[in-house]
Each structure stands twice: as C-alpha cells, then as structure tokens.
Automatic annotation (TrEMBL):
HAMAP family: MenA_1 (MF_01937). Belongs to the MenA family. Type 1 subfamily. This is 1,4-dihydroxy-2-naphthoate octaprenyltransferase. Conversion of 1,4-dihydroxy-2-naphthoate (DHNA) to demethylmenaquinone (DMK). One of its GO terms (cellular component) is plasma membrane. One of its GO terms (biological process) is vitamin K biosynthetic process. Keywords: Cell membrane, Membrane, Menaquinone biosynthesis, Transferase, Transmembrane, Transmembrane helix. The gene is menA. It comes from the Bacteria. Its main location: membrane. GO terms for molecular function: 1,4-dihydroxy-2-naphthoate polyprenyltransferase activity. It catalyses: an all-trans-polyprenyl diphosphate + 1,4-dihydroxy-2-naphthoate + H(+) = a 2-demethylmenaquinol + CO2 + diphosphate. Pathway: Quinol/quinone metabolism; menaquinone biosynthesis; menaquinol from 1,4-dihydroxy-2-naphthoate: step 1/2.
Length: 289
C-alpha cells in the first residue's frame, strides 16, 4: 500500500507550477485591463490544479498498465512500482479531474457558458495524453498539447473569464507561459529518452534525439524572456520579469552540460520555479502599469 507521502509524490508536485503560473499570468493580463477578480482567479486555480494532478495520475495509470514505467530513471510512479492498484490511481485521476471540472462549470456559469465546451476538450486532452488506443503523448505531441492547454488556454481563459476579452498582452503572456510549461515536459522527456525508446513511447525527445532536445529546451526558455522584453511595450515595469533569468540559467546548466538520468530531475524543479517567479513578477508589473 502506498503511503500518503507516496501518493503526494505520485501527483508530481514539481509540475504544479504548470497549473499555478498560467493562472497568475492570466490574472495579470486581466489586471492590465483593470478587470482582475480574485474569486474568479481562485476558481481558475482550482481548475488548473485539478487538471494537472488529474493528468499526472491518469498518466501514471495508463503508462503503468502498458508497462512503460517498468524501467524508469525518474521519480516514483505508483502503478509501475506496484505501490498502488491501477484502479486506485485511476480513481484518483477521475476525482482530480472532476474537482477541476466542477470549478470550471462554476467559472463558466459566471463568465461565458460556451467555455464549458473548452473545458470538455481539456479533459479529453488530459485523458488521451497517454490513455486510449492511440495516445498522442506516444506520438511526439505532448509538448504541443502542454503549450496549448497550459499556455494558450489556461492564460487566455483566465484573462477572458475575468475581463470578458483578451488582448495582445494576454496573448504574449500565453505564448511565453506555454514555452516555459513545455520546457518542463521537454526536460522530463529528455531524461526518459533511453527508457521511452526501449518501451515504444515515441515522445518528441525520442524523435529529435538527445542533442536537439537539449537545444529545444534552451530555445523555449529564450523565447519566454524575449517575449518579456516585448511586454515592455505595454509598460516598462515588465522588465522586472527578467528577475527570473538567473533561475532559467540555473535550470539550463545541467542540460547544456550534457547531464542525464537522475541528474536532470532538478531541471524540472528549477524550470517550474523560473515559471512561477516570472509569472508573479510580470503580473505585479502589469498591475502597477
């Protein structure tokens, strides 16, 4: 039986910045339009956290029953390590996605009912990432999905539910957040290239190979900070977003150095921390601006 701590680890807390940062950035975009709403931001946060935890447990379940996690160099997986029954992990995934869905229904009810359809697509995307007969995460599309769902949809959805419109500032924030969020998955898949290739999980990292995946990771970080400079056109205060640059440099150091396996695990934490600090800094800047 898995302990509580192991269930928490199975939820992959290092990926939580992928949920929190887009909501912070989207709220900053709404603040730029003088339309920030704390309670709508809170509901959006519940949606995002429910989605991230749900997709992590769903991924644990689907990869576990396929045998993809039988050999791993990364953090604990509940099903693959035989610490929890597949049905229990599936139940945890369903509960997490349901909590996110209920918060999303409330948010759509008070904002725009058509967003319910967007939420349904997000839930389907969460399950089909590694679930179903042809999971798109096994075809090199995982990073694209993260960019769309935890970048464009999460940031612009947060801005829209509060301001009932989007603007170029929101789009810029969404693209930058999508790049940082995708970089987290790129680092994860870079670490898993040997085992994923062995088990037939053809991620984008497996397709590109080790060297090109390292270039992609650094390029995603660079694009995010170039877009931070673009945001200075809205208000010079956005330059404060560069405070996260040293964290990005620290995250990229093991990648540039050619580290692999367990040595790449800190990259996920540092990339997530980069995303959080950047989102908070830019949101404060837009609020002041």
């Amino acid at each position: 039986m898995a302990s509580f701590a192991q269930w928490v680890e199975g939820a992959r807390p290092r990926t939580l910045p992928n949920a929190v940062a887009p909501v912070i950035a989207g709220t900053g975009a709404a603040a730029w339009l003088d339309a920030a709403s704390w309670w709508k931001a809170l509901l959006a946060l519940v949606v995002a956290v429910g989605m991230v935890v749900g997709v992590n447990y769903a991924n644990d379940y689907s990869d576990g029953i396929r045998g993809t996690d039988d050999v791993r160099s990364g953090p604990l997986r509940l099903v693959g390590s035989k610490l929890a029954a597949p049905r229990s992990v599936l139940t945890a995934a369903v509960i997490s996605l349901t909590v996110g869905a209920l918060a999303g229904l409330a948010l759509a009810w008070f904002s725009a009912p058509w967003l319910i359809a967007v939420g349904a697509v997000c839930i389907a995307g969460a399950w089909l990432y590694t679930g179903g007969s042809k999971p798109y995460g096994y075809s090199g599309l995982g990073e694209v999905a993260v960019f769309v769902f935890f970048g464009l949809v999460a940031v612009l959805g947060t801005q829209y539910t509060q301001a009932l419109r989007i603007d170029w500032v929101g789009v810029t924030l969404a693209v930058a957040t999508g790049c940082l969020s995708s970089a987290v998955l790129v680092a994860n898949n870079l670490r898993d290239i040997p085992t994923d290739a062995q088990t037939g999980k053809i991620t984008l990292a497996v397709r590109l190979g080790d060297a090109k995946t390292r270039v992609l990771f650094q390029a995603l970080l660079a694009v995010a900070f170039v877009l931070t400079l673009v945001l200075i056109a809205a208000t010079p205060w956005c330059a404060v977003g560069l405070v996260a640059l040293p964290l990005a440099v620290r995250a990229a150091k093991p990648v540039r150095a050619g580290s692999g396996g367990m040595d790449l695990i800190p990259v996920l934490k540092d990339t997530g921390l980069t995303m959080l600090v950047w989102a908070v800094a830019v949101t404060l800047a837009l609020s002041l601006g």
